[in-house]
Amino acid sequence: MKVLGFAKKSLNGLHNDRIARIKAHPPPLNQIRRRGLSDSNVFNGHQEDTVLPVLIVGAGPVGLVLAILLTKLGVKCAVLEKAKTFSKHPQAHFINNRSMEVFRKIDGLAEEIRSSQSPVNLWRKFIYCTSLTGSVLGSVDHMHPQDFEKGVSPVSVAHFSQYKLTASLLKQLEDLSFHVYTSQALEGLNHKPLKGREILLGHECVSIDATGQCVKATAAFLEEGKYMRKNIQCNILVGTDGAGSTVRKLVGIDLRGERSLQNLVSVHFLSRDLGQYLLNERPGMLFFIFNTEAIGVLVAHDLKQGEFVLQIPFYPPQQNLEDFTPKICEKLIFKLIGQELSDIDVIDIKPWVMHAEVAEKFVCNGNRIILAGDAAHRFPPAGGFGMNTGIQDAHNLAWKIASLVKGIAPSSILETYEMERKPIAVFNTTLSVQNFRAAMGVPAALGLDPAVANSVHQIINGGVGSVLPYGLQRLILDGIFTVGRAQLSEYLLNESNPLGSLRLARLRSIFEEGKSLQLQFPAEDLGFRYLKGALVPDSNSSLGAPEPPTGHRRDYVPSADPGSRLPHMDVRVLSDLSSEEIISTLDLVSSDKVEFLLIIAPVDESWPLAHAAVKVAKEFKASAKVCVLWPNGTVRGIVAGSKVALTSLEDYVNVVEVKRSPTSSSWWDICQMTDKGAILVRPDEHIAWRMKSGIVGDPIMEMERVFSTILGVKPTQIYETSN
Fold first, then answer.
1. For the segment 672-694, what is each residue's pLDDT rounded down to a tens digit?
2. Overall CATH class of domain 51-119+145-256+355-436
3. 259-354+447-501, which class in CATH?
């Protein structure tokens, strides 16, 4: 490596030559346009205070995360939520690696989750049993040794109920000066325009008009016993209002995929006695319970607090919600536990339907209405892809909205949100369905094939059975279930019975081969890649479809391909101070401004590119920070020499590799690149462009091409901003 053998080219000279060439042959005036103003003048700083930059409809985790990220980027926004209070139903609870990495950028949120959740040993297993106090049919440990080593990510996965996450996100928003209002608490403010940093509860979006220059949303709310309406004008409306999205329906976007995979009833209950028993005897996250009296899946949200959700198969219309009163649910819980408990407290009972669908469009109406989270895609809960995919939607979207609002990019930047996120949603839909089918393989191995039950149910509803009296239909259905559950009798399901022994052997094979329901998918959680969008593909790479999902856990392999998440590596920050901070490469990316990160090695070829990237980014009204990444073992005195090479730059940082072991790969080996290469990282930590082994030609022209492609801005802007 040529370390600081700096023969500096005159970057100012190169740039001036470039400007001179443009001035000598200026583009036609009709080709010159202001960035961010090509479609309308709504972001020119002269808009009336009555127009809100961004309105978010839906105050679930996705909407709240988006509000936080936008606010940190300096974009005003407000949130509408039709519910009058925030739900305490636990709902989603598994947070994957990538979402936890996003939370690390939200002022201490990841650490709060890590410290507040139960110890991992209490939730790392799925347990299959005949009852919670009966025989264990098998268990699956979903944590591998490498999951604790933080070798591929600076943070681990988490088990944290959605309502607790919502409370933490609201605290973050409160720290950002957001206020939560009910319709009663607004006291006349309902008739004034939103200024930003409001969360309005009890306000349902009932109409959207995007025919004018701005989007007009109408919210209905109850005030003093009367339904009132509030009109809100915004530049961009984002629907994060869940699987039954009103926004999606109002703008006429259809869903495509599999509907009604399964109907279930969700029973939220408390029992400290049950929690204490499981803590001592068989701690786990999910308990799959099969016996002759009842079948269900118990989600242990918090064993120490005794908080649970029971998922029970539901077959309407022969069954209805009245069949699941609190008392009936208590009896079902006792059957699944194997004994009665005195402290059962049923909090809530909700029916729900499992779908696997993706919206046809994520962006519409001139890039002014956008769908994110469950509004854009709804998956089976198998693998926890729903909330996690939505959080990553928000992370992808926030910097693009900020780029538009701040005049860095035109509205076409929002089209890249759909280009990038829709293929991920389709992929995750397939993977979650595969995982759901794997979950159904366990009861099928025990002689309880759910597909058979669903087929019989469909025949009763739509075939010859539909003409039978309702009572007879229900009697037939109950009889089929009773016969099915008889397969789980101790007489049949034991090693002495040939059929039972065969079924138990089949069950063991499913667990040993990893063919049951899986919790973690590192290759998909961290390794998803955008193939087209706000990025510059390698000229010599073939952009084929990603490897199809297998339904099995696969290890993540770091990649520096454009569109991939920046690989994680521990690095030590080198400065004039005596302290030496160790951070992740992901921490080098700012979360408070639209800033790109250029990672280079300390070689002669890097310096002109560093100067060019910073200069061109500034001309594109964005910013760029340079990171000089030094090899392990570099001496501080040598690093000081980079000040000579980068003396004119306002924002650069020197870091040195921190290897986990002497045999660990170097940074450039991990990236499968030479140290003469460079990586440009977007504000969402995905790689926008990379140069594997050195640039050929004018670095200014290359950076113009790169930023023009990423942001969707014509290079002719260089001429305009230079005059």
1. 999 899 999 999 999 999 998 87
2. alpha beta
3. alpha beta
